[in-house]
Amino acid sequence: MNLELTQRGAVAVRLAIGIALVCLSTSCDGLQTSPPIPSTCSRIGAQCQLPGGPLGVCQETPCDEGVAAPCFACTPQH
């Protein structure tokens, strides 16, 4: 009976390791990427990419002459 429990335990451990490996291999496959952060703004509060590298946030700004409102600019977050 003791040998039978040991074999069951070994099977359970192998099964758990197998399930863990399958879960890890499917969740980190590199295919799930986030969309790129835009460098132009279309709404207040959206994230944007500043030319210097860090992320910025879109804020409303005065429009250039002849440009229809609303206008936005990518500004540093800090």
Short description:
The protein has one helix spanning 2-27; strands at 47-49, 55-61, 71-76. By secondary structure, the protein is α+β, with helices and mostly antiparallel strands.
Structural topology:
Blueprint: H1 2-27, E1 47-49, E2 55-61, E3 71-76
Q: How much is the radius of gyration in Å?
A: 26 Å
How many DSSP-defined strands? 3
Uncertain stretches of 5 or more adjacent residues: none
Spatial order of strands in the largest sheet? 1-2-3
Number of helices: 1
Helicity level: 25-40%
**How confident is the prediction overall: mean pLDDT?**
81
Shape label: rod-shaped
Characterize the structure shown.
Helices cover 33% and strands 21% of the residues. It has one helix at residues 2-27; strands at residues 47-49, 55-61, 71-76. It has a 3-stranded antiparallel sheet with strand order 1-2-3, with no helix packed on it. The longest helix has 26 residues, at 2-27. The protein is rod-shaped.
